[in-house]
Specification:
The protein is of the alpha+beta class and 506 residues long. Helix content is 45%, strand content 14%. The chain has 18 helices and 15 strands. The strands form 4 sheets. The chain has a 5-stranded mixed β-sheet with strand order 3-7-8-4-9, with helices on both faces. Helix 3 crosses helix 6. The radius of gyration is 26 Å and the shape is globular.
């Protein structure tokens, strides 16, 4: 066991808990002395461990260095971190431009998004800054914000939406006919990460951190530019996707969206009141809805956000126009006219790969359903067919299953909380079984079908009673055996620094 590494992590966790508790207790305050923590050798060693165990450790920046090359060089990691700390302390450190690469957008054939790959040294410094700033801002982010936050993922956002729009009041006949929100504004910002204004972002950072050295370092990262095919381009706006610090900075900037609706979400902190700001926001929503006034409630996942509207269609359209003007004036962002639309909740809307809608049921009335869209099922089948294409017939069945099983496992685990997931996963198992059979038949055209079945179809060792395609120790993953259950919000794990001293696991 690496006791030095454990001691560094324990020290960093203590600092993070201190910052989190301070930020939570003084939400309007600004911390002014974090530079010594950012440049502390223990923090830099923790940052190195994070970068060294990341999936991108083999990817070099513009200097061509990887984690392995630095570890194998003269002096190794200790000399590298000592030089990095010395450059930070004497002010000579300057971030290098990010190496730009274009990667395909998932689910959008033919479309690509830019990815900026910083150098290993820049990644370590960004991670060190993130280790110190994240607890400060995490204590101030609101409950309607998800994405790029520890413990708050897609499933939590979808369950939050389901509980927000589901009808609760029953009529005289016991049926739920009235629902709290009738419309939803599906927000889509054009080139969000590439167009975030640096002035707006840094103004929000300085409200919580007034350490000039740290803020100056963040500005240098934002202004470092990108290098693509030996052509340098400056970055006057935006946070480059691919950096360690970029997700936190994007959340800091975009948290202004939910703060626009503070009246119905979270009131400012008032030490004289016993209830917190979220409870006061819930009371205002109830009072305004009862008085017939429009109510707006946001839910955001990274740069994708929804505004639920309690009121008329005209109220939703007016808020859409007001939001577009506010984003343009305050943040320099443009709301897409084509993709931003107002949708009735009974028609349903797509969010995070799922279909969310209010549907009538003769047993209890309207209810909220999170479903798997048909387009997603078709995309999954196309992906399976692409893996088992004819050009792969020179490979063995076991190698094909090793490529296919992670896709099946990930798809099943993501959609297992949706309505009708058991039926959909069972149908997907049958489809994968059929595609593997056709692949084997095409690979061994002269072998009788009975011999193929005898050679590669056997009883499952993981789920006895089922016959699956297998070779050696590798067998087809059965998605229908994934536990299908409704997601609970209390399953979201708080980060370790959010636990006070004396709590379990603290």
């Amino acid at each position: 066991m690496d006791f030095d590494n454990q001691a560094d992590k324990a020290w960093l966790l203590g600092v993070q808990r201190k910052l989190y508790q301070w930020s939570k207790g003084t939400p309007e305050g600004a911390y002014g002395d974090v530079w010594n923590w950012v440049t502390d050798p223990r923090n830099l060693r923790c940052a190195w461990q994070t970068i060294a165990h990341n999936k991108g450790r083999r990817t070099p920046g513009v200097d061509g260095l990887t984690v392995a090359k630095i570890a194998a060089g003269d002096g190794g990691v200790p000399l590298f971190l000592d030089g990095l700390r010395e450059a930070l302390r004497n002010g000579s450190y300057r971030p290098s431009p990010a190496r730009r690469r274009w990667i395909p957008k998932p689910g959008r054939p033919g479309k690509f998004r830019p990815l900026g790959i910083p150098t290993v040294a820049d990644r370590v410094v960004q991670c060190a800054v993130k280790n110190i700033l994240e607890p400060i801002f995490e204590a101030r982010f609101w409950q309607v914000s998800y994405g790029f936050r520890p413990g708050r993922g897609c499933h939590g956002a979808l369950e939050h939406i389901r509980q927000t729009i589901r009808p609760r009041i029953r009529g005289a006949d016991g049926m739920r006919r009235d629902f709290p929100y009738q419309w939803v504004i599906e927000g889509d910002i054009e080139g969000c990460f590439d167009n975030i204004g640096h002035h707006h972002l840094m103004d929000r950072v300085r409200k919580s951190c007034v350490d000039r050295k740290v803020n100056r370092l963040i500005v240098r990262f934002l202004k470092a530019g990108v290098l693509e095919d030996f052509n340098y381009s400056s970055t006057a706006t935006g946070t480059p996707q691919g950096g360690v610090l970029s997700p936190l900075l994007a959340n800091i900037a975009l948290s202004a969206i939910e703060e626009r609706y503070w009246w119905w979400v979270r009131h400012p902190y008032d030490p004289k009141l016993r209830s917190d700001g979220a409870k006061r926001g819930a009371k205002r929503r109830f009072a305004d809805r009862r008085a017939g006034r429009p109510v707006f409630y946001p839910v955001r996942y990274a740069d994708d956000f929804l505004i639920f509207v309690s009121g008329s269609y005209e109220d939703a359209l007016a808020e859409k126009q007001a939001l577009a003007e506010w984003l343009r004036e305050e943040m320099g962002l443009t709301l897409s006219e084509q993709k931003t639309r107002v949708t009735e909740l009974t028609e349903g809307f797509r969010f995070l790969g799922c279909l969310v809608r209010l549907k009538w049921d003769d047993r209890y009335g309207y209810g909220c359903r999170v479903e798997v869209p048909k387009e997603v099922i078709n995309e999954f089948r196309h992906r399976v067919k692409k893996v088992l294409r004819r050009q792969t017939q020179i490979r063995s069945l076991s190698s094909m299953l090793e490529d296919l099983n992670p896709i099946l496992r990930g798809w099943a685990n993501y959609y297992r909380h949706c309505v009708g997931a058991k039926r959909i996963l069972s149908a997907a198992d049958r489809y994968v079984h059929q595609r593997l059979w056709l692949w084997l038949r095409s690979k061994h055209k002269r072998v009788p079908a009975r011999r193929l079945v005898k050679a590669w179809r056997r009883a499952s060792r993981v789920h006895p009673g089922n016959r699956v395609w297998a070779e050696g120790s590798v067998e087809q993953y059965l998605m229908s055996y994934v536990r299908v259950v409704k997601y609970e919000l209390n399953w979201m794990r708080s980060p370790d620094f959010a636990k006070a001293f004396g709590e379990p696991d603290a």
